[in-house]
Amino acid sequence: MPRNIFRNIFIGLILISIISIGIKKSDFNEIGIIQNNSKSETELNQNVVSSRMTYGRFLEYLEMGWIKQVDLYDNGRNAIVEASSPELGNRPQTIRVEIPVGASQLILKLKEYNIDFDAHPAESKNVLITIASNVLIPIIFVGGLLYLFQNSENFPGGNGQSPMNLGKSTARFERRPDTGVVFDDIAGIDEAKAEFEEIVSFLKQPDKYTIVGAKIPKGILLVGPPGTGKTLLAKAIANEADVPFFSVAGSEFVEMFIGIGAARVRDLFKKASENAPCIVFIDEIDAVGRERGAGVGGGNDEREQTLNQLLTEMDGFKENKGVIVVGATNRVDILDSALLRPGRFDRQITVNLPDRLGRVGILKVHARNKPLGEDVSLIQLANRTPGFSGADLANLLNEAAILATRYKKTSITKNEVNEAADRIIGGIAGAPMEDTKNKRLVAYHEVGHAITGTLLKSHDEVEKITLVPRGGAKGLTWFTPEEDQSLLSRSELLARIITTLGGRAIEQVVFGEPEVTTGASSDLQQVTNLARQMVTRFGMSSIGPIALEDENNGQVFLGGGTAQGLEFADSIADRIDEQVCKIVSYCEQKAIEIVLDNRVVIDLVVEKLLDIETMDGAEFRELVSTYTILPDKNTPYVSKFD
Ligand code: ADP
Ligand code: ZN
To answer: How far, in Å, from the CA of 432 to the mean position of ligand 2?
Structure first.
């Protein structure tokens, strides 16, 4: 705290000195001149001496004999002259002239032209002040800056470091890591866990491995989407192996100044080898390890130097003396291949999003310290959350706990868990809509999605329909997602397109073409996207099984791989558009058909929905099934479309 006060005083001083430097400058020009000359002083104050003249022009005036009198100030650096010339209307005027340094001939010249001149020396009582302002203030200024540099903990942009220490590693270091994470806290990523357990065993008993000639990898690269537990794994090995743990983010090596990143890498590895056996964890390693010379705007010297240093350091320790480098990234595709060569990050462990059982495991881990009500089924919750990462699941249970506190409950019930899941998937709920024509339209729109999804064999089941706005959407139809989202059949894709178009189709049928709204714009975007991918990526059109675009088509290229997209002729481009249109219009037709065929039950559901706001999937199916036969979603569906 006292140091902070000091710092503030210094900042204050610096400000003062900046201000006084400003004043000093004007001193020279004005105050200095008028010190001893009451005549000029009044003139200056009355702004009479506002006109200026260059020295060159002054000499011309001198030669022309237009100068009447000269008063010199500041050791001859400034002069106030009285001149009259035809240019000036032949009236005597007072003009200021700045005299360049080294114009020592001036006095001789003035004598030569017989000009009346007078020199005004600076007053001696001001000498001290002058010295003070000329010397002391800059010293305070520079001294203060140095002080700030050396002491600042939060100097802007300094990573909380003094700029004098820029080359020092910023890694957080724990000699006896108490990360609090044990392998038991990690679920759903068993392969990665097994791999790490082996490394822990190496760190604990290296002899057991070296005796049979086994070498433990120097570098392990954890690859996987964010939030899947990569950091958690690294923390767990440090804790379980009980070895020092260095943790740093790749972005901390990326600095503005060339050489600093490399110096930090060197420093980190120096410290690590002093503390071996130990673990160095580099999160987001892609920040340094991106392929050299790739990416928008070409290479980046600083990053390349840093990467080279990293490569050198990893080669440095020939046999693994126990420094294990664990890198984590979600973009292995953009990493420089040199990083992945044997002897560096030679072992890659993929950490995937957890599957259903994995999610149950992770939910169990995070439910340990939370009082769950008896009606909460973690299995059901896991069913509802395909695509959730470990971090998402942890977040979900935490949200539920917060909601339970808000509702003053002593345990977390199904209600809070569902609300938390809704929030995370769909965003925060807004206030219910007023009963207007729009609300009715939204109700129809959502029922349009629900009815098509329900009556198509290959579509996921409706979980619920709601008119409670959430995350920008005015109403939502939730479907229970199928477990494996990575492998979709053609009929599943078509069913998705039809269902997504269902909202728009119902608007058309019920309210008529002129009343169709803008509400379906994101639906349409999705539809177009899906249809296009069917044609260009999945070979699901009459163009045939050709990959015409890749996954990242249309995105800014950010390093890695080859830069050019897949090329095709204009004629193919036309055919792509044609096929996309064909798919979409087929699906639109289908959606309209389903809506027309089920108009009676649709109207019924809408009335009910407007009343209760949220309808459960089971209730919806029940209602629909009294009017029509629901498809058996478990038998394969054969699409007739071609
Ligand atoms: P990553 O480093 O892969 O981005 P983290 O390891 O930082 O993800 O995970 C963030 C949080 O998510 C963890 O602190 C933990 O609470 C939770 N989490 C993620 N994966 C798991 C898992 N497999 N088991 C248990 N908790 C997990
Ligand atoms: Zn919609």
So the answer is: 17
